[in-house]
Design brief:
Blueprint (H helix, E strand, L loop, with lengths): L29 H9 L3 H4 L2 E5 L4 E3 L12 E6 L14 E3 L5 E3 L7 H4 L3 H4 L9 H9 L40
Antiparallel strand pairs: 1-2, 1-3, 4-5
Length: about 180
């Protein structure tokens, strides 16, 4: 069901992958890093480089306990082989010819979890999202909530509004901002 056909529903992701291909602005916050260190997710940490309080840059895979993260000031997603920023997210994987998925979706960084262009008024110019472009043409409603990746999936909390729990899983209801 298309979000522009039924007012008040959260946008449904088409999985075109365009939002994961917009250049060097993906980072990990301290909560992300701590979770990945505890889970021993060096497969993720390897792609992030930390700038530390002593002025050094450290590949985040070298952090072995959460206490060592206290010296991290910020992180950038950096290709460990070239030391360059990624153009496309290294966790983006093909699902089919024109469909993509996030290989770390369940533990993706907060910056990705909170990405809601339909709320921020980006109207698709930033990464040419076909859903947002269609919404901007046909509706002036501001949406909130989490982008739905399938008809049956819905996250139980709205990460933009901590403490707000959605009920009726699968109804795809959203709440409008005043």
């Amino acid at each position: 069901m298309d979000p522009d056909q039924t007012p008040g529903l959260a946008p449904v992701c088409l999985r075109c992958g365009r939002c994961c291909r917009y250049g060097p602005s993906i980072n990990a916050n301290s909560t992300d890093l701590k979770r990945w260190v505890i889970e021993d997710r060096t497969d993720i940490l390897t792609f992030f480089q930390a700038y530390c309080t002593d002025g050094s840059y450290v590949n985040c895979a070298f952090f072995k306990n959460p206490q060592s993260l206290s010296r991290v000031l910020w992180t950038d997603m950096i290709n460990p082989d070239t030391n360059d920023y990624y153009k496309d997210c290294p966790f983006l994987r093909p699902l089919s010819e024109n469909k993509w998925y996030c290989s770390i979706y369940e533990t993706r960084p907060a910056i990705c979890t909170r990405f809601r262009p339909w709320e921020w008024g980006e109207k698709g110019e930033f990464f040419n999202c076909p859903v947002v472009e269609r919404m901007s043409r046909e509706a002036s409603t501001s949406f909130s909530g989490t982008l739905i990746h399938s008809e049956k999936e819905e996250r139980t909390t709205d990460t933009c509004n901590p403490g707000h729990v959605k009920d009726n899983l699968g109804t795809r209801k959203i709440h409008h901002h005043p």
